[in-house]
Automatic annotation (TrEMBL):
This is ATPase. PANTHER family: HELICASE MJ1565-RELATED. It catalyses: ATP + H2O = ADP + phosphate + H(+); Couples ATP hydrolysis with the unwinding of duplex DNA by translocating in the 3'-5' direction. Belongs to the HerA family.
Length: 382
């Protein structure tokens, strides 16, 4: 097997695809991705992804080409590998099938302290230099200090209700207090903040795939969760509170850069290797990702792309060791991908293997609806 992301021998891995436990004795964990795709369309040798060390990766592809499917393949294999733990950000509700591989789907809850005081105005859509925004910043900072107080537990967190009470009694104009309280009440309605929420590292404690169900969550709420989880996994590894190497797999990643979640994701891209935190960003809009997402990635999986802006972002991954431009080498078939591996300085066309668990990312067909069947039956009546 050729192993992407590994600098040495490619056949030393304990191969995992979600169908076995991947124990493999002392062999190095490897996630089976698929197989080489020959020019005549036949399948070649097996291709895997190194799961032994931390990686930064991106998965590109226009809608319907297999981007989310590929992310699910990685999650399956990682869930069966030793010493790692996948956490999947699922904004579209398509990864629930991982439950059949021993995974769990959770509606995430985070502590208010998971968002630093200076980020709260942006999270609530307030100007940090304006009256309500600066009031929220000041009150959250004070509430955090008061909650920790003399306690030795830095995990203590105030509730949003407690923060609103502080706003109501703050020394500020009534209009500012009213606006700040209303925005905090809105954040409370999102249902993601809980002062008693378990620490983030528990999401990755046992190695089973954890799917963060964000389908239907407001954009700001989803961004808050992604920031809290990304930063929480990083901090847990720094503190030594998490033994496994976590992999954060983010679908529709373009939605989380440029906002509240951006600093935490950039931290994983630029500094995640040292503590052992991996990040894989999947998107149908590569052009909406920052350049750092491509420049810091050592693994790139590209399904079909056609938009000029997206092809320009792909071109940023072109290295001196690659002959020709990447865009001309993109395969056209669903489930086929061009893989650029920085570790071995190579690019290959691969066919992604079939999922072992149900995939929820397919598109419905009008011909398969009850309405269509009923209409067809009526048309056959004499």
């Amino acid at each position: 097997m050729h192993v992407l992301g590994r600098h040495f021998g490619s056949d030393e891995g304990a191969i995992t695809d979600g169908a076995n436990d991947g124990s493999g004795g002392d062999r190095i964990p490897t996630v089976r991705l698929g197989s080489f795709l020959a020019r005549d369309g036949s399948a070649g040798a097996a291709v895997g992804v190194d799961a032994d060390g931390p990686h930064a990766g991106v998965v590109f592809g226009k809608r319907g080409t297999g981007k989310s499917y590929t992310l699910g393949v990685l999650a399956e294999g990682l869930g069966a590998a030793r010493g790692v733990s996948p956490v999947v950000v699922d904004p579209m509700g398509v990864f629930g099938g991982l439950e059949s591989a021993g995974g769990r789907v959770v509606e995430p809850r985070i502590r208010p302290t998971a968002i630093p005081p200076e980020a709260w105005p942006d999270l609530l859509g307030l100007d940090s230099a304006g009256g309500p925004g600066s009031l929220v910043w000041r009150v959250v900072a004070g509430a955090v200090d008061a909650a920790v107080g003399g306690s030795e537990r830095s995990s203590d967190s105030p509730s949003l209700a407690a923060i609103r009470e502080r706003v109501a009694t703050a020394d500020a104009p009534a209009d500012d207090r009213r606006a700040a309280a209303n925005h905090l009440r809105l954040a409370e309605s999102w249902g993601v903040f809980d002062a008693g929420a378990p620490p983030v590292e528990r999401l990755a404690a046992d190695g089973a795939p954890t799917v963060l169900d964000l389908a239907g969550a407001p954009e700001a709420a989803a961004a808050a969760v992604v920031r809290a989880v990304a930063r929480g996994l990083y901090d847990a590894r720094i503190r030594g509170a998490l033994d496994r190497l976590p992999w954060l797999l983010v679908d529709e990643a373009h939605a989380f850069f440029g906002g509240v979640a951006d600093p935490a994701l950039r931290t994983l891209l630029t500094r995640g290797r040292a503590p052992g935190v991996s990040l894989v960003c999947a998107t149908q809009r590569p052009g909406a990702l920052p350049s750092v997402a491509v420049s810091q990635s050592d693994l790139l999986v590209a399904h079909r792309l056609t938009a000029e802006r997206d092809l320009d972002r792909l071109a940023e991954a072109e290295a001196t060791y690659l002959a020709g431009d990447l865009a001309s080498r993109l395969p056209a078939g669903t489930g086929e991908a061009l893989v650029v591996d920085d570790a071995t300085e190579t690019a290959h066309t691969v066919r992604i293997r079939e999922r072992r668990t149900p995939h929820g990312g397919g598109s419905p067909c009008a011909s398969g609806t009850e309405a269509a069947a009923s209409a067809a039956a009526k048309s056959e009546d004499p």
